[in-house]
Amino acid sequence: MQTHPAIDATLSQVGHRLRRVREKKNLSLAELSRTTGVSKSTLSRLESGHRKPSLELLLPIAAALAVPLDEIVAAPRIVDPRMPQEPRRTAGRVIVPLSRTQGEPKAYKLTIPASESEPFPRTHAGYEWLYVLSGRLRLVLGDYDVLLGPGEVAEFDTQHPHWFGSTGRGSVEVLSLFGGQGERAHIRARPAPRDRQRRM
After folding, report:
1. Residues sharing a CB contact under 8 Å with residue 35, sequence separation 6 or more, in sequence order
2. Pairing with 178, which of 32, 64, 117, 157 sits 20 to 30 Å away (CA)?
3. Which run of H or of E encompasses 43?
């Protein structure tokens, strides 16, 4: 049976915690053995980490030491699963970084106000992928001037002159993936049906 790494880490600390509590109570292994009915060798192996702890062993030990079970067995630490969100405002746009790591591509959530509707195309190294969450997004890319609604996606090489913002009729929320070295977003497509593959 496969166990969780956090549980394994917690169990590996039981022996050390048990020895610390026992020594704090000024009890020898022999004395604890007489009180609990657990053999001295089993207690020794438990403290050294050579015996896997179980409730059958730990409950009488905790009772004999007069301590709560969680003083011997600490609950696994659960890490907050929420992404850190530290919004910053740039030229009226609210940008929320969504990536934990320092690598690329980077993920962002952008809220663009209605006032951000005047195109000023620019170029830079990289590749960008946009997904519209709400509102209408205007994208100017080279000679193209297109509108995208909720659920629509665009991706482009940022070395081409580009700009995206509001249509002027309301704010727009967008998810952005950006890679500074030209990484593209790889979207897995469904394989074609077998009968269609045979005809191709």
Report:
1. 27, 64
2. 117
3. helix 40-48
| pTM assigned to the model | 0.51
Closest CA relative to residue 105, chosen from 96, 97, 115, 113? 97
Ranking 42-56, 91-105, 135-149, 158-172 by mean pLDDT, the lowest is: 91-105
What count of other Cβ atoms lies within 10 Å of the Cβ of residue 53? 19
The 8-class DSSP code of residue 2 comes to -
Instruction: Write a three-state SS string for 98-166.
Output: CCCCCCCCEEEEEEECCCCCCCCCECCCCEEEEEEEECCEEEEECCEEEEECCCCEEEEECCCCEEEEE
Burial classification of residue 56, based on how many CB atoms lie within 10 Å of its CB (0-12 exposed, 13-18 middle, 19 or more buried): exposed
Question: Minimum mean pLDDT among 29-38, 128-137, 184-193: which range?
Answer: 184-193
| Helix/strand/coil for 88 | strand
Residue type, 26: N
- pLDDT of res. 5: 67
